[in-house]
Amino acid sequence: MSIENTNLEEVKKSNLNILEAQPNIRGWIVKNGEDRVVGEVKEILFDPHQRKVHYLVVDLTNNVLELSEKEVLVPIGLAELHELNNEIILPNVSGEQLEALPEYDDNYFSPATEDRIRQVFSPEEPLASHTPRSAFYEHEHFSESKFYKRRVENSRFQ
Asked: What is the pLDDT of residues 126-148, one digit of tens each?
């Protein structure tokens, strides 16, 4: 089943092979900046044409912040790999932001949903409805280099 009105796909429903050099983060624990469990990576959404990850599907079930138990999308640039452990850190994402995110529906995901997600994390920015999707993903929220930053910095000292 494809995601409506976008070019994004879930890894599990695609032919994408995760490279040996890249960790398969599905199933990894997600923590906030205070080292508290907020969920688990359920899935990854990527653009198959650009071969870039744009979102983590985070399952908020069994979180310690008493958030609604739902699946939400977190832009990849807001998450970071832990330096050593197989964990994902959301250093600047609050519980209030996670709670405000729309519930992820793998049968219906549209640019309007992405606009709602952006408004949660950047409420001061105007809605991007009229922005071409290619430019939409140039935002720092989709920076894969930010995602790998901690692990890359740590590997320099090993």
From this structure: 665 566 766 788 888 988 888 87
Written as six digits, the tokens of 30 are 């997600």
CATH number of 9-155: 3.90.50.10
Could you write out the DSSP letters of every residue in 100-150?
HSPPP-TT---HHHHHHHHHHH-TTSPP-TTS-HHHHTTSGGG-HHHHHHH
Name the residue ranges covered by the structural domains of the chain.
9-155
Q: H or E stretch including 22?
A: none
Q: How far is CA 54 from CA 31, 47, 87, in A?
A: 19, 7, 18
Give Cα separations from 38 to 46, 51, 58, 148 (angstroms): 22, 27, 9, 20
Q: What is the pTM of this model?
A: 0.84
Residues 6+ apart with CB under 8 A from 137: 47, 50, 52, 54
